[in-house]
Amino acid sequence: MNIGTSAVRPSLAHFLICLSACGVFLLACGTETGQSQTGQKALSDTSIGQNAQPRSLVLAASESGNGAPNISEAHVDAALNLCLQLVDTWDYRYLPQRNAALDSIQALGESPTAAAIGAALRADALAFVRVDRVQNLLRVEVTLRSGAQYNKSSQGLGWDVIRYRRDEDNAQVTDLALTTALQRALAAASGDSLLFAAVEKPYNVRPAAPLVVTGLSIAENAASGWSIFNDHIVNSYHAVVAIGEEARRHEQFVAVDIDTRDTMYAMNGFYLVENYRPPTDIEIQTLQFFGVEYVLGGALDPITVEHKPQEEAGGNAAEIRLDLARLTPDRLIPVANVSGRLHVDSRDSLTARLHELTAELLDKAVTPPTR
User: Fold this and answer.
1) How far apart are CA 178 and CA 214, in angstroms?
2) Would the pLDDT of 2 be above 50?
3) Is-above-0.85 flag for pTM?
């Protein structure tokens, strides 16, 4: 499917402006600007490597952006402290230490820049953290700065889905998702995808890419007479749920839930999602905008077979095909696909088969990470 070029609506454009504010935020903290690098490239030889001695790190500043007003700097500090206790890579300077250094600098009448705070604490590196949320999806961006005047920079993104809510008021509990997303961002920024791989569960995480299930195209009014095709709207929804449930078992992906996916669409003015049809150009554009890296979809079509398992005669059946594609700025790049047959006309049989095929597809797509 070709990605169109329709304009982004104002609400979505505002979200983009806020996401880009992190760059201005870093400058406002007073650090010298170095060449920005992506999370795929680690810091220079003065940064943390897998065999380096532990070095000191301070949270220079944090920002809670879109949809995350309740995630305070204290939350980020606690999560960052936990992350760094899990490995012997960093020696963390706690938030009270940073604030005490800030007060001392101000008392001397000096400018309390991030670089000045880092120097006062003899920190080897500064961390800048930004947290954004869309419905149940957390996005954490970490920028690490080190070297002379902290002018060497590396960035990393981390994602996770908020899965827990409080019983009393149904409010989101973000602690675990924040910690997991922060771990992934730190691993990406440090250039070591296995930074936390050896720690105990549930903290043995690796960088993972956001994945959205776009739907399962189901032939309408199929001549087979199967109820699966006659009730295609409801069955396609259950299909998306089943595929997403299986995708969440695979640690290389962050499977976005349906509510979050539909919220992304709604923010771009697209409110009617048809899970039984292929994604539209505007849906693909919207997912791309929000940083989704992979889309998973497929099709269900009626077929006739000569022989069916455990049955004497042939007859109606269905063919399932699942496709995984990677989103790029220009197009969708096919990654892997699988197919299989369904011989029983029931929703339970369909969802069970989708679990099997999704597992096969994602296992086929994944390659072992390397340092």
Assistant:
1) 25
2) no
3) no
Q: Which residues are registered as beta bridge partners of 75? A: none
Which residue would you say has higher pLDDT here, 295 or 44? 295
Count other C-beta atoms under 10 Å from residue 2's C-beta: 9
What is each CA distance from 21 to 64, 130, 302, 327, in whole angstroms?
11, 10, 50, 24
> Residue 100 burial by CB count (10 A; 0-12/13-18/19+): exposed, middle or buried?
middle
Cα–Cα distance for residue pair 23/30, rounded to 1 Å: 12
What is the band of 168 on the pLDDT scale with cuts at 50, 70, 90? confident
- State the Cα–Cα distance between residues 362 and 115, nearest whole angstrom: 44
> Residue 28: which residues within 8 A CB-CB, separation 6 or more?
none
Q: Integer distance in angstroms from the first to the last C-alpha of the chain?
A: 34
Closest CA to 261 of 239, 300, 291: 291
Contact in structure between 308 and 314 (CB atoms under 8 Å): yes
Residue with tokens 């990677």: 326
Residue with tokens 């960035």: 155
Q: What is the pLDDT of residues 101-150, one digit of tens each?
A: 999 999 999 988 999 999 999 999 999 999 999 999 999 999 999 998 89
Contacts of 108 (CB under 8 A, 6+ apart): none
Q: Which of 90, 91, 56, 96 is nearest to 77 (CA)?
A: 96
Residue-wise pLDDT tens digits, 23-55: 333 333 333 323 323 333 343 333 444 445 678
CA 211 to CA 293: how far, in whole Å? 6
Q: Kindly state the DSSP code that residue 2 receives in the 8-state scheme.
A: B
| Residue among 237, 241, 362, 350 at smallest CA distance from 300 | 350
The b/e string for 178-193 (b: 16+ C-beta within 10 A; e otherwise) is bbbbbbbbbbbbbbbb
Q: Are 105 and 58 in contact (CB under 8 A)?
A: no
Q: Distances from the Cα of 191 to the Cαs of 41, 45, 239, 292, in angstroms?
A: 6, 12, 37, 21
